[in-house]
Write a structure and sequence with these properties.
This protein is α+β, with helices and mostly antiparallel strands. It contains 24 helices and 22 strands. It has 6 domains: 60 residues, Helix hairpin bin (Helix Hairpins); 233 residues, DNA ligase/mRNA capping enzyme (D-amino Acid Aminotransferase, Chain A, domain 1), CATH 3.30.470.30; 90 residues, Nucleic acid-binding proteins (OB fold (Dihydrolipoamide Acetyltransferase, E2P)), CATH 2.40.50; 70 residues, 5' to 3' exonuclease, C-terminal subdomain (DNA polymerase, domain 1, Orthogonal Bundle); 71 residues, 5' to 3' exonuclease, C-terminal subdomain (DNA polymerase, domain 1), CATH 1.10.150; 69 residues, BRCT domain (Rossmann fold), CATH 3.40.50.
């Protein structure tokens, strides 16, 4: 065959193989036999071997690379990948609809068109295409920064390595944007998950608890050949950016994804009005067990993309979509034992050790009992037969004890008076349900604090896991998180399982973590009752670490999303000498969280530089929504009137704040004035 003929034939074969891949993996409607497909694939392999200069990364033969990567690199994305807020029942679904109407200032009887899709239980990913060619795949990570999994995600057959220039279904030509960002979810089909576990069992290797864990673990492999043995499926449902393209509706967007060759969520239905949406949600729940994949709810989206843009988003979630969860599935099992864990703040957490039981596609072996009050309330005892469920289809919990099955000689359970780790006295603070170890140097407290500090949602020290933390503690190299930054190459190389390369890699990762963001450092410090979301709120509000440390309980409580109890806990944390010493040590070793993300400009808008106080009830929107509107337009909302207040918004039955505002000469807006201001 002449060179020009080989080149033409290679292009033909790639096009036909891409087409038949789509028919097989996306439409489940193959047009040729497996033998015919294999023959076509082998011909392409043979021709590419003859002409290696014609091998291209988007060729079907190049899905599996030959070389493992050394590490999963961090990828910063152009647009954040937000998570969805949850609606746990039908009342919350209706409230989602009402909230949208209030935000858009629509009458309550207006029917908004929504799209309903299954909510997958997998790993969210972003795909980048340049000139129609797949170039990068990344996990969601924290929404801003993800991990590069290009080498493994390209092994998924439902991922088009090249966008189809014409629709495989209609034959119509497709626009190919210069750059395309696609969002989707990598999952493992139930049949593939069961087959994988059978293979794992036959090889006497680890059995995966559920399809989600299997999918996440498979995608984050360093060697793509491992991922090939754990078949994944990719569903795509959103576009982050598409150069030169706009869409009028989500349904139009989904059709275009299909035309490019992506597998999209199915079933997908549209509905006008929230009651029709609820009926679709109920229908999908009834279909749940007939689907080939695990789902835990319905994703409800506003169909009109113009409305989506108007609704915009909060710092965490889009306002135009919600994840409506199904009621959790329940099973019965037996409590074989109750053990006690000591956490990073010293809190003792009782855990029910259960006879393994399958609940909603996952094997449940343990369930937290939270605290002694919860144990007393449910009267949970060793040997009890209990009903368990996975809250939100994720976290195992005990719903109730089946008292009729209780053993005659069972005894009520009491938490120990001494810490099970260091045997120090257990104390209980006033007005607190939790009981904690009184020893700030308890080995469990230190170990769990450091494990939390290095976590990927905190300081994100690559390659450092729990085993290494315990190894460093046992060797006496660390006693606090700050000591991590004092570890030397000479001390590491002496430890088991550390060679020159691994020691250098760990030290490099530790050094790299010094340059971080304020929210990550706050989260890493492990303040009680402060998770990732509250850490972001603190960083966004105060902007610098000294400002956070100096904040009073009153100032903290003014932040939307932080209540008085958490505010008091945060303020108290920074007054403890041991905590202040840890922070000073971290700063002394070079931790730099200034100017790295949290110092981005605040929202700039009509209300920039203005401070608002709300009093009384607004008929058009809730207190929370009115705060969101002010903040979205650049304003600040506080809880008390002072000379720094710019405007007081007075609704029905205003309190003493209105009188104080008038005494101070502060501008007062009624609801109509406020609505007019935000409308314009």
């Amino acid at each position: 065959m002449q060179n020009s003929s080989i080149e033409i034939r290679i292009l033909e074969l790639r096009g036909w193989i891409d087409y038949h891949n789509y028919r097989y993996y996306a439409l489940d409607d193959p047009e040729i036999s497996d033998a015919e497909y294999d023959e076509m694939f082998r011909e392409l392999q043979r021709l590419e071997e003859e002409r290696p200069d014609l091998i291209a990364p988007e060729s079907p033969t190049q899905r599996v690379g030959s070389t493992p990567v050394g590490e999963l690199k961090k990828i910063a994305r152009s647009l954040p990948m937000l998570s969805l807020s949850n609606a746990m029942d039908e009342a919350e679904i209706r409230e989602f609809d009402a909230r949208i109407k209030r935000f858009l200032m629509l009458d309550s009887d207006v029917n908004i068109e929504y799209v309903c899709e299954p909510k997958f239980d997998g790993l969210a990913v972003e795909l980048i295409y340049e000139q129609g060619i797949f170039t990068l795949g990344a996990t969601r990570g924290d929404g801003i920064v993800g991990e590069d999994v290009t080498h493994t995600i390209r092994t998924i057959h439902s991922l088009p390595l090249r966008l189809h220039s014409e629709s495989p279904v209609t034959g119509k030509p497709n626009p190919i944007p210069e750059r395309l960002e696609v969002r989707g979810e990598a999952i493992m089909l139930i049949a593939d998950f069961q087959a994988l576990n059978r293979r794992q069992s036959a090889k006497d290797e680890r059995i995966f608890a559920n399809p989600r864990n299997a999918a996440a673990g498979s995608l984050r492999q360093l060697d793509p050949k491992t991922t090939v043995d754990r078949p994944l499926t990719l569903f795509c449902y959103h576009i982050g950016a598409a150069t030169g393209l706009t869409f009028k509706s989500h349904l139009e967007l989904a059709d275009q994804l299909q035309a490019w060759g992506f597998l999209t969520p199915d079933p997908r239905d549209s509905a006008s009005g929230i009651e029709s949406v609820i009926r679709l949600h109920q229908k999908l729940e009834r279909m749940r067990d007939q689907l080939p994949f695990e789902i835990d709810g319905t994703v409800i989206k506003v169909n009109d993309i113009g409305l989506q843009r108007r609704l915009s988003q909060t710092s965490r979630n889009p306002r135009w979509a919600v994840a409506a969860k199904f009621p959790p599935r329940q099973m019965t099992t037996v409590i074989e034992n109750i053990t006690v864990q000591v956490g990073r703040t010293g809190v003792l957490t009782p855990v029910a050790e259960l006879k393994p039981v399958e609940v909603g596609g996952a094997t449940v072996r343990r369930a937290t009992l939270h605290n002694q009050d919860e144990i007393d309330k449910k009267d949970v005892r060793v040997g009890d037969r209990v009903i368990v469920q996975r809250a939100g289809d994720v976290i195992p919990e005990i719903v109730k004890v089946i008292e009729s099955k209780r053993l005659v000689d069972s005894q009520p359970y009491r938490l120990p008076r001494l810490c099970p780790v260091c045997e120090s006295p257990v104390v209980q603070d006033q007005d607190q349900a939790a009981r904690r170890c009184s020893n700030v140097s308890c080995p469990a407290v230190i170990a769990n604090s450091i494990k939390h500090f290095i976590h990927r949602h905190a300081m994100d020290i690559d390659g450092m896991g729990d085993k290494i933390v315990y190894q460093l503690l046992d060797a006496g190299l660390i006693q606090s998180a700050a000591d991590l930054y004092q570890i030397t190459f000479e001390s590491l190389i002496k430890l088991d399982r550390f060679a020159e390369k691994s020691a250098k890699n760990l030290l490099a990762a530790i050094h790299k973590s010094k340059k971080t963001t304020l929210w990550r450092l706050i989260h890493a410090l492990g303040l009680p009752s402060v998770g990732e979301t509250t850490s972001r709120l603190l960083a966004d509000h105060f902007r610098t670490l000294p400002a956070v440390r100096a904040a009073t309980t009153e100032e903290l409580a003014e932040i939307d999303g932080i209540g008085p109890i958490v505010a008091k806990s945060i303020a108290q944390f920074f007054t403890v000498d041991a905590n202040a010493l840890l922070i000073d040590k971290l700063l002394a070793v070079g931790i730099d969280c200034e100017g790295s993300g949290q110092n981005r400009p605040r929202n700039v808008g009509k209300f920039s530089g203005m401070t608002f106080v709300l009093t009384g009830a607004l008929s058009g929107m809730s207190r929370k929504e009115s705060k969101s509107r002010v903040q979205a337009m650049g304003g600040k909302v506080t809880s008390s009137v002072s000379r720094k207040t710019t405007v007081v918004i007075a609704g029905e039955k205003p309190g003493s704040k209105l009188k104080k505002a008038k005494n101070l000469g502060i501008d007062v807006w009624n609801e109509n004035r406020f609505m007019e201001e935000i409308k314009n």
